[in-house]
Specification:
By secondary structure, this protein is α/β, with parallel strands linked by helices. The protein has 2 domains: 4-179, no CATH class; 199-419, Rossmann fold, CATH 3.40.50. The protein is 35% helix and 23% strand. The protein contains 15 helices and 15 strands. The strands form 3 sheets. The chain has a 7-stranded mixed beta sheet, with helices on both faces. Strands 3-2-1-4-5 form a 5-stranded mixed beta sheet, sandwiched between helices. Strands 12-14-13 form a 3-stranded antiparallel beta sheet, with no helix packed on it. Strand 7 (243-250), helix 10 and strand 8 form a beta-alpha-beta unit. Helix 1 packs parallel to helix 3 (40-50). The protein is globular.
Length: 420
């Protein structure tokens, strides 16, 4: 759905007057940045000026090089739009990286994976730090990324020069993901137990941001996130001035520490005197919470019929992503947890949505959050790959697909749940 920002972008390109658009992107609470490129009308207006490939637009020197903009240079309206979007993104990333460096040890060189829209556009931004100086520039862009893509997956189609640059930053210990004004940091070595943002997280974040921005509220809302992981969704929600209170509960102590760190990176204050933001390390239990909540969000494990937990061939990570008990437990507790008029957003998948949706309480309804048959993404759970019998069963039941290269895929199908 087109928003005011997209309308301002179209108006700016048409008139070459960018004042209103510049003011708007500077003041965004949950900034869209290059997400405006989801507007088909805007893209149609830009294509004659830039060519047909949006992944190349952001890599043009006239987009990212501030030195290219000088009194003697002449740029068309499309180039000016892209430059303003990049300058806004760059300044936000620089501030966030500074915040990360004050709370964690990060590499002097690395990359930030930036996502826009419902994961319909991604930009890998390379950063280099030298003292207080920070240099950022786009390294590669990708349309419709199928996951929170690792840099090494981009090597195959890269030029020799780009391949060299990707290799330099691909093996950094820092996993950095940016979306909607939130930068999440996970140290791949010391925080290996923590799930960094996945494609599931990116889609849920965008759905939440759009919903929050369009809510007609009589009061600020209370939010519960179950299983925040690295804290991506909690940080985004906590930054909204429409959220009064947020409680995040995770069984994994490492995840709660990582969530707290990323809340702080994103300027969310956890103050013992003002319990607006709570991060708790404990198993989900409705009895230990303080309902009702206006919004509940969870990206739970959704792979059904996991092998026997006593089977030592199943990794700890595999146990963390299999089974649907948490999801069904949450759904069963919705009558007591969810406020009247409230909403729950739960990620489901083609591997288990039949069982999950069968557990929606009788007085509630589930509404699909994505159009069509959901988002097709890789199934990258190693334990499924390593268990031929388990994999075969999921394939026979049509829960997952296998491509010509023997890759496994499933479909993400997030749902909104509310009282009838």
């Amino acid at each position: 759905m087109s928003s005011e920002l997209e309308a301002l972008a179209r108006q700016a390109v048409s008139s070459s007057d960018f004042k209103n658009f510049h003011d708007a992107i500077s003041l965004q609470e949950l900034p869209k940045s290059f997400g405006v490129m989801n507007d088909a009308e805007l893209v149609r207006a830009i294509k004659p000026l830039l060519g047909d490939d949006p992944t190349k637009w952001v890599l043009r020197k006239s987009t990212w090089d501030v030195n290219a903009y000088n009194p003697l240079a002449a740029f068309n309206s499309a180039e000016t739009l892209l430059h303003l979007l990049w300058q806004d993104l760059r300044s936000r990333l620089a501030r966030k990286l500074d915040a990360v460096s004050r709370r964690a040890t990060i590499s002097r060189e690395g990359a930030i994976l930036c996502f826009f829209g419902l994961a319909t556009f991604g930009i890998v931004v390379r950063f280099t730090r030298s003292g207080a100086a920070m240099d950022l520039r786009p390294l590669v862009a990708k349309q419709d990324p199928s996951g929170v893509f690792e840099l090494t997956s981009l090597l195959e189609d890269a030029s020799p020069q780009l391949r060299s640059e990707i290799k330099r930053v691909a093996f950094s210990t820092d996993k950095l993901v940016y979306q909607r004004g939130v930068l999440i940091h996970v140290n791949r070595q010391s925080e290996w137990e923590v799930f960094g943002p996945t494609i599931d997280t990116i889609i849920l974040a965008e759905l939440l941001a759009d919903r929050i921005e369009t809510l007609e509220l009589t009061h600020k809302i209370t939010v519960l996130e179950i299983g925040p992981g690295s804290g991506h969704l909690s940080a985004m929600l906590a930054k909204s001035d429409r959220v009064a209170e947020l409680t995040a509960v995770d069984l994994n102590p490492a995840a709660t520490f990582c969530t707290i760190k990323n809340l702080q990176i994103n300027d969310v204050i956890l103050d013992g005197k003002h319990q607006a933001i709570r991060v708790r390390s404990e198993a989900f239990s409705a009895k230990q919470l303080s309902p009702p909540y206006d919004l509940i969000v969870c990206n739970p494990p959704y792979i059904p019929k996991a092998p026997d937990p006593s089977d030592h061939s199943l990794s700890e990570r595999g146990r963390a992503v299999t089974g649907i008990e948490l999801c069904t437990d949450i759904l069963g507790q919705l009558p007591s947890l969810l406020a009247d008029g409230g909403l729950a957003l739960v990620m489901t998948s083609s591997v288990s949505d039949r069982e999950v949706l069968g557990c929606v309480p009788q007085d509630f309804e589930a509404i699909t959050a994505l159009p069509g048959d959901g988002r097709r993404v890789p199934l990258d759970v190693d334990d499924v790959w390593d268990s031929p019998e388990w994999r075969g069963q999921l394939l026979r039941e049509g829960r997952i697909e296998e491509d010509a290269q023997h890759g496994l895929w499933h479909r993400l199908r997030p749902v909104w749940i509310k009282r009838k």
